[in-house]
Design goal:
7 strands, alpha+beta, 134 residues, flat
Length: 134
Amino acid sequence: MRRFAIPALVAVAVLASGTTAAARGAADQPGGRGTVPRAEDYTWADGAHVVIPPGRTGSSEAVCPPGQVPTGGGYNAFDGGVIDLMVRTNSPTSDGWHAVARNTSSTNTIEFWAVAICAPGTQTQAPRPAPLAP
């Protein structure tokens, strides 16, 4: 019986499944393009930069360009030193990303903004799963 190292078997399985997944992925891309988006197809969208005074809350929303949908996102913050920030909301919207934060500092203001990573496509809604049988 021949022994193979587990990493070698995993690598073979990943390579084999990757080929099939890539072929499947190209065929079911939104918009009927039939190709996987390239890095240059993605857009980084910044929301409005808001200045949050000490003890106050601010929000920002990044919006994807027309014809693109959010694939991820988050927020950035800057105050030139230690950031005292409590993020209350950090979530996708139908066309971008929304973030809300509270400045917990007693002295420093914070510049805060949402970011979204967008890709070509259309928004779809996944079907609801069937209820579990008792």
